[in-house]
């Protein structure tokens, strides 16, 4: 099975974390509540990838890296025949004001229709609901 390098972003402010759901795509809507995450591109450092992915999926300006939280593996089967080697990071928002709820669109490389992200803030003590094992490093935010 192939191994794919991934990043996961916990964007934290005031005891809450940015989460999203996909509201306009039937298949993606079934994916549940998630945090920004994505694939590390060839030649890209994970710390650069997490900032890129977080911005692409949230549209939030001025994101900055706070700290590295660790690495974990996620078996992507049956949806993909790959093990995701995930690097988890805590990020902070540089903007003074961020809405409670907002929508962003990831356009990627233009190979597909823009993907809608319906974003909001979720209290950390409720973030155990994250899909795909994305909550595995939440406790590290308390260190």
Structural account:
12% of the residues lie in helices and 41% in strands. The protein has a single domain, classed as Nucleoside Triphosphate Pyrophosphohydrolase (Alpha-Beta Complex). The N and C termini lie far apart (34 Å). It contains two helices and seven strands; from the N terminus they run ββαβαββββ. The protein is globular. The model has no long low-confidence stretch (mean pLDDT 90). It has helices spanning 26-29, 46-58; strands at residues 2-13, 16-21, 37-39, 64-75, 82-92, 101-106, 115-123. Strands 1, 2, 3, 4, 5, 6 and 7 form a seven-stranded mixed β-sheet that branches. Residues 2-143 form the Nudix hydrolase domain. InterPro entries: Nudix_hydrolase, NUDIX_hydrolase-like_dom_sf, NUDIX_hydrolase_CS, NUDIX_hydrolase_dom.
SSE layout and pairings?
Blueprint: E1 2-13, E2 16-21, H1 26-29, E3 37-39, H2 46-58, E4 64-75, E5 82-92, E6 101-106, E7 115-123
Parallel strand pairs: 1-5
Antiparallel strand pairs: 1-2, 1-3, 2-7, 4-5, 6-7
GO molecular function: hydrolase activity
Domain Nudix hydrolase: 2-143
InterPro entries: Nudix_hydrolase, NUDIX_hydrolase-like_dom_sf, NUDIX_hydrolase_CS, NUDIX_hydrolase_dom
Q: Report, as a whole number of angstroms, the end-to-end distance.
A: 34 Å
Radius of gyration: 14 Å
What shape does the CA trace take? globular
| Number of structural units classed as domains | 1
Q: Just give the CATH class.
A: Alpha Beta
CATH superfamily: Nucleoside Triphosphate Pyrophosphohydrolase
- Give the class from helix and strand content and strand pairing: mainly beta
Helix and strand succession?
EEHEHEEEE
- Proper CATH architecture: Alpha-Beta Complex
Helical residue percent band: 10-25%
CATH level 3 topology: Nucleoside Triphosphate Pyrophosphohydrolase
Q: What is the average of the pLDDT values?
A: 90
As a percent range, the share of strand residues is 35-45%
Strands, total number: 7
Count of runs of 4 or more consecutive helical residues = 2
Family: Belongs to the Nudix hydrolase family.
Protein name: Nudix hydrolase domain-containing protein
Keywords: Hydrolase
Pfam family, one: NUDIX
């Amino acid at each position: 099975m192939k191994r794919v390098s991934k990043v996961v972003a916990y964007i934290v402010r005031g005891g809450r974390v940015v989460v999203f759901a996909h509201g306009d795509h039937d298949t993606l809507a079934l994916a549940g509540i998630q945090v920004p995450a994505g694939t590390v591109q060839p030649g890209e450092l994970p710390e650069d990838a997490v900032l890129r992915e977080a911005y692409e999926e949230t549209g939030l300006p001025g994101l900055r890296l706070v700290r590295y939280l660790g690495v974990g593996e996620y078996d992507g089967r049956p949806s993909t025949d790959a093990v995701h080697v995930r690097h988890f990071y805590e990020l902070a928002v540089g903007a003074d004001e961020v809405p409670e709820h907002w929508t962003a669109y990831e356009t990627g490389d233009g190979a597909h229709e823009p993907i809608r992200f319906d974003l909001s803030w979720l209290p950390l003590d409720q973030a155990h609901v994250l899909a795909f094992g994305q909550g595995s490093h939440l406790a590290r935010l308390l260190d």
